[in-house]
User: Which sequence fits this backbone?
């Protein structure tokens, strides 16, 4: 019986956590590739992010297909040849913000995020600097970092080596709102 | 005993709690996300042409495709003709994506001084775990602008025209393997002899197998139903490779057809694969994004 109560309590804690959880499914992730022949940039405005403001745990997920390119053919090749989005649907990040997150006043400061990033099915440890801000009762996270394509087994054929950078700059922006469970 | 067991239990619960904190968040994310529609299948073929004929692919809105197509003479024409390479015919064409589902195109072939125009509508898209096929309809008109062979008789402008109507049904069975069926109707306003039909029905079949991310093997065959055209004509068979390099797709192939418009390669193919009546040829496709659609 005691154990049962304990279980209920712990489960309860779990749900209580939800109050400390902020989320968005309309975050922005864009990347930029600078190469001798052309620059390529693409943006997804459908990036998901969820943050536990008490523990600092943060998870982000973006569907590869949600990235929009200026040139339609680039988008097709990005999905078909490079990121193989039919096999590896999403890119994800799971990590933890190291600093205590301030939620009782408006503020903005730099934080360190340690975790793992998975792109093209390959998981790599990732430690980034990001900007945390809290304004009007809601938090926001912003940051940018570099991803080396070869770290995630994204091959660039020799023919287009002049067109695609080996390291692309990724920029993220998440404006979060309190988490609401959908039924 | 009891306290230790209790400690164990509590410790264990906390460990699992900790380990799953981020996974829980991930789960909450997927619960809060809306269910997406079944994903469209893209890149069934690399080009808007399978080889001679159309594939189900369309240019996206605002994309202009420049096509430079060559067919050389027959390989069995011997060393004097450099196995056909001395004798090239070409078609220059543009296809344009008015919308993602509607393409229009124009072209001019040296063979028969032919002008052609086409409308191409993609009206059903294959979806993962849903619709099994992509369907595209193509209507094209060809105008033979050669001088009339017999200027003495009364010649009508309409005699220069032929039409072709195709329904293309393709399925990307796997990432590397796509197949396509092409029921086709060709209408010729004027035929050489009374024995030849004005309407010619044919059924095409083809497909591609990707050899690498950038190279695919392609094949295409058109079967013309019997008793419609002269026995001297053969069914069109073509095999080739698609080589894709960013904005270009090169298609190199061998085919027994010389013409690069439907009425020609489907109903007037003279080459015979068995005795070397094969033409080497290539399609060079380059796309330009000339208009950037707003989101």
Assistant:
């Amino acid at each position: 019986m005691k154990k049962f109560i304990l279980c209920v309590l712990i489960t309860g804690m779990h749900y209580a956590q939800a109050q400390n959880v902020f989320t968005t499914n309309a975050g922005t992730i864009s990347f930029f590739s600078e190469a001798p022949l052309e620059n390529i940039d693409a943006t997804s405005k459908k990036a998901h992010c969820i943050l536990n403001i008490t523990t600092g745990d943060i998870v982000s997920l973006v569907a590869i297909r949600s990235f929009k390119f200026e040139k339609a053919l680039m988008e097709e090749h990005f999905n078909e040849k490079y990121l193989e989005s039919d096999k590896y649907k999403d890119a994800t990040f799971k990590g933890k913000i190291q600093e205590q997150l301030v939620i009782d006043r408006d503020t903005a400061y730099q934080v360190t995020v340690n975790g793992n990033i998975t792109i093209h099915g390959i998981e790599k440890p990732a430690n980034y600097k990001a900007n945390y801000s809290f304004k009007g009762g809601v938090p926001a996270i912003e940051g940018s970092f570099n991803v080396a394509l070869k770290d995630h087994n994204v091959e660039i054929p020799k023919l287009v080596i002049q067109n695609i950078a080996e390291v692309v700059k990724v920029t993220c922006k998440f404006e979060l709102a309190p988490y609401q469970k959908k039924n | 005993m009891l306290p230790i067991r209790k400690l164990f239990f509590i410790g264990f619960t906390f460990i699992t709690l900790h380990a799953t904190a981020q996974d829980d968040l991930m789960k909450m994310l997927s619960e809060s996300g809306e269910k997406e529609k079944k994903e469209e299948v893209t890149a069934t073929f690399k080009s808007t042409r399978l080889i001679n004929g159309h594939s189900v692919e369309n240019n996206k809105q605002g994309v202009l495709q420049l096509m430079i197509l060559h067919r050389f003479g027959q390989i069995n024409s011997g060393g004097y003709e450099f196995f056909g390479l001395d004798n090239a015919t070409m078609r220059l064409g543009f296809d344009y994506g008015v919308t993602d589902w509607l393409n229009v195109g124009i072209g001019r072939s040296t063979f028969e001084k032919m002008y052609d125009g086409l409308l191409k509508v993609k009206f059903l898209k294959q979806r993962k775990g849903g619709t099994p096929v992509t369907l595209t309809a193509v209507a094209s008109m060809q105008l033979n602008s050669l001088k009339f062979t017999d200027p003495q008789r009364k010649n009508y402008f309409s005699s220069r025209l032929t039409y072709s109507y195709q329904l293309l049904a393709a399925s990307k069975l796997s990432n590397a393997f796509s197949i396509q069926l092409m029921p086709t109707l060709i209408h010729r306003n004027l035929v050489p002899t009374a024995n030849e039909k004005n309407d010619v029905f044919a059924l095409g079949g083809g497909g591609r197998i990707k050899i690498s991310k950038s190279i695919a093997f392609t094949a295409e065959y058109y079967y013309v139903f019997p008793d419609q055209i002269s026995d001297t004509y053969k069914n069109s068979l073509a095999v080739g490779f698609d080589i894709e390099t960013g904005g270009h797709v090169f298609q190199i192939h061998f085919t027994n057809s010389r013409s690069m418009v439907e009425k020609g390669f489907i109903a007037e193919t003279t080459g015979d694969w068995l005795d070397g009546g094969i033409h080497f040829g290539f399609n060079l496709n380059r796309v330009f994004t000339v208009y950037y659609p707003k989101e």
Remarks:
- Chain B touches chain A through 39 residues (CB under 8 Å).
- Chain B has a mean pLDDT of 90.
- The two ends of chain B are 67 Å apart (CA to CA).
